[in-house]
Amino acid sequence: MSVESAVARVVCEACGAPVRFDPESQGLRCAHCRHVARLTPRPVTLEAHPLDVTMPDDAGEPAANLTALECQSCGAVVERTEAVIAEACPWCASTLVRAVDAQEDATTPTALLPFRVPRSALAEKVGRWAKRQWLRRGDLKTDTLCDEAVGVYAPFWIFSAELDVSWRAERARRATMKGAQGAEASGQGALVWEPASGRRAHRVEALAVCASRGVPTALADGFEAPPLGSLVAWDRRYLEGFRAERPAISQSLGWSHALKRVERSLYTALGREVGGETHRGLQLSMVARDPRWRLLLVPIWVARVTVGGRPERLLIDGLRGRVSGALPWSAPKVLAAAAAVVTLVAYLVGRGRG
Ligand SMILES: [Zn+2]
Ligand SMILES: [Zn+2]
């Protein structure tokens, strides 16, 4: 089957030209005659499936007719409604080439969050964000940002589970008598270490883990849980003019990422629970009961800005417009801040002496 015959475009009902999904009107806009056809979203209840179920039989299947392109560098498989032979990978800018047939995929999302932030709003959002980046370079070139930004529906696993958490640690209390057994000498007396342990239940609720290999981990983990209330049933018309990435991280690998994140946040919470004056050797173990997954597509704009001649990649949440990325440090701003700190310290030291 040729690429062309595999892809049937959705066309304008007024003039027959190809259309694109328009985030502002939530409809299909014709680039030729500007006609907008409203899209009536099909509501969807995203059922949570047990972790050991890879693909439930009743999940429904997205219509095929998509061109699948694979990145030779980061491994992302990106789907398009247009018949393209090759293009740049939205994540790593390597070349995407024709991949396996889209229909052969095992786990396909059945729901998505449509783009709400239009392309035209990106430069202004990035500009406002850059102004708030303390000590970072603000001399961004954003003139081509809106035209070149690529909108990708990135796959996210949404996990939920009940966890039984048991922990053990040693906590210290202040000895009432100096020289008690097991006491350590200290300036104000002595610390006595005693074993402590406990259990607690912890609910994991709608924890979002990015299933794309292209999205940098630091940015993917920083993504807030998407609001599941705005979900619609998968419909290829939302993909017109955009890309959709297939899950590159399996749900079992995604679940282990989720558990690591839960563990990190529990260490902080349990640190307070251990009690005592201080504690050491905190260890925890978690047993998950009935872990469940859902899979959906989250809209992300991938934009490039130039800072001092170097390209920097930024991600903009296609739903709420939040920008994430790291601009290079600004040497003058860092020096100015350091000088201010030195001046303040000198002033305080001088006042202390005087
Ligand atoms: Zn038209
Ligand atoms: Zn890539």
Q: Given the helix and strand composition, which structural class is it? A: alpha+beta
Question: What is the number of helical segments per DSSP (H or I, 4+ residues)?
Answer: 6
Secondary-structure element pattern, one letter each: HEEEEEEEEEHEHEEEHEEHEEEH
Report the sheet with the most strands, covering strand number, pairing sense and barrel closure.
Answer: 13 strands, mixed
Radius of gyration: 26 Å
Mean pLDDT: 84
Helical content stands at 10-25%
State the domain count. Answer: 1
Query: Which ligands, by name, code or SMILES, are bound?
Result: zinc ion
Strand content: 35-45%
Number of strands: 18
Low-confidence stretches: 1-6
> What is the molecular shape?
flat
User: Termini separation (Å)?
Assistant: 86 Å
Describe this entry's structure for a reader:
- A hairpin with a 6-residue loop joins strand 7 and strand 8.
- The chain has one domain.
- Helix content is 20%, strand content 36%.
- Mean pLDDT is 84; it is low at 1-6.
- The protein is flat, with a radius of gyration of 26 Å.
- The chain contains 6 helices and 18 strands.
- With 354 residues, the protein is α+β, with helices and mostly antiparallel strands.
- Strands 4, 5, 6, 7, 8, 10, 11, 12, 13, 15, 16, 17 and 18 form a 13-stranded mixed beta sheet that branches. A 3-stranded antiparallel beta sheet has the order 1-2-3, with no helix packed on it. It has a two-stranded antiparallel sheet with strand order 9-14.
- The chain binds zinc ion (ZN) (2 copies).
- Residues 12, 14-15, 17, 30, 32-33, 35 line the site of one zinc ion.
